[in-house]
Amino acid sequence: MVKKFRTYLTEKIPTSPKAKVVACLVVSIGLMVTIASMKKTLIVNIDGKEKEIVTYKGTVEGALQDNKIILDSKDKVTPELNSKIGKNDKITIIRAKSIVALVDSKKLSIKTAEANVKDMLKAEGIKLNEEDRVEPAVNTKITEGLQVEVTRVETKLVSEKQQIDFDTVVNPDENLDKSVTKLIQEGELGEKEVTYKVVYENGQEKNKKVVGEKVLKDPKNKVLVKGTISTLVLSRGGDMLKYKKQMSMVATAYAGDGITATGVVPRRVLNGMSTIAVDPSVIPLGTKVYVQGYGYAIAQDTGGLIKNRKIDLFMNSESEANTWGVRSVNVYIVAYPGEC
Question: Which of the listed CATH numbers 2.120.10.30, 2.30.39.10, 2.40.30.110, 2.20.230.10 matches domain 156-225?
Answer without folding.
Answer: 2.20.230.10
